[in-house]
Amino acid sequence: MKVEVIGSKIIAVVSFLFLTTLTFGQVIRSGEIVFEKRTNLEKRYEGAETFGNSKEWMKEPKIDEYVLYFNDTVSVFQPILPEIGDDDREWATMKNTTYQNFSSKVLEREFSFYGSKVYLKDSVRKRDWIITENVRVIAGYKTKQALWIANDSTRIYAWYSEQILPSVGPESFNGLPGAILGLALEDGGVVYFAKEVKPLSKSNIAKEMPKGKSKDYFTIDGLKTYVIELFSNRGGSGGRIMDDIFVW
User: Fold this and answer.
1) Which runs of consecutive H residues, i.e. helices, occur in 26-104?
2) Rounded to two decimals, what is the model's pTM?
3) 169 burial level (CB within 10 Å; 0-12, 13-18, 19+)
4) pLDDT tens digits, residue range 193-226?
5) What is the pLDDT of residue 41?
6) Helix (DSSP H) and strand (DSSP E) numbers for the chain
7) How far apart are CA 38 and CA 191, in angstroms?
8) φ, ψ for residue 140 (rounded to 5)?
9) Can you tell me the distance from the alpha carbon of 64 to that of 11, in angstroms, rounded to the nearest whole number?
């Protein structure tokens, strides 16, 4: 009983300190951020071949949840698998897992292609952000807006909080003066928003990143070649899956 009581007191103290940090606006250096990803399937698959004549499966947004574990050095962004899956539409969105080490500048990602796992290992990505004057509140935090122009047809908006100091974010995003709590394509086709920020529950974040065999790893250039060849052999170009890999 004494151990349980002491453990409860420790948890209570940690929670109190975390909440006090939020209340007085001090910066947060580690924690967990739960995200909701909302995908507009009609926009995502616009112009693509669909299964049969029915497009009913596209009418409702596809909702996925993720958790971002982070501290000053490392972050891991991974999907939260639902207890009851959206079985008929699980294939419609990719669920990538991403590890970033900001000291060693190492980026690792896990993707799933037709049931097979493929891994990327390269350098942490750098993006040229444009800070705007727009602000909004997300998950109780004041955030500022930034814009990244990925290419001629793709713009992505991010909302970051300077209260959460590490420069982390969903997928492979980073590089802003605080954690990214919101991320969205300009057309709203894919949107990530934080639902909750809470204390870190993992003692070793890096262990949360899945590991593959050495033969399954690619650099970014190698993975681009692999994906282009894969889809050309299947009569396609990769489409939005290319965005899932090389934009996000």
Assistant:
1) 41-44, 56-59
2) 0.84
3) buried
4) 999 999 999 999 999 999 999 988 999 999 999 8
5) 81
6) 5, 12
7) 5
8) 85, 5
9) 29
204 vs 67: CA distance, rounded Å: 15
Q: At 138, is the secondary structure helix, strand, or coil? A: strand
Write b or e for each residue in 182-208: b if 16 or more Cβ atoms lie within 10 A of its Cβ, otherwise e: bbbbeeebbbbbbeebeebeeeebeeb
CA 151/CA 148 separation, integer angstroms: 9
pLDDT over 90 at 10, yes or no: no
One-letter amino acid at 6 equals I
Which contacts (CB < 8 Å, 24+ apart) does range 133-137 have? 136/182
d(CA 184, CA 241): 16
Extents of the domains making up the chain: 2-246
Predicted confidence (pLDDT) per residue in 31-64, tens digit: 999 999 999 888 777 655 555 555 666 778 889 9
Taking a C-beta distance cutoff of 8 angstroms, is the pair 123, 105 a contact?
A: yes
- How many whole angstroms separate alpha carbon 97 and alpha carbon 208? 9
* Pairing mode, strands 116-123 and 217-218: parallel
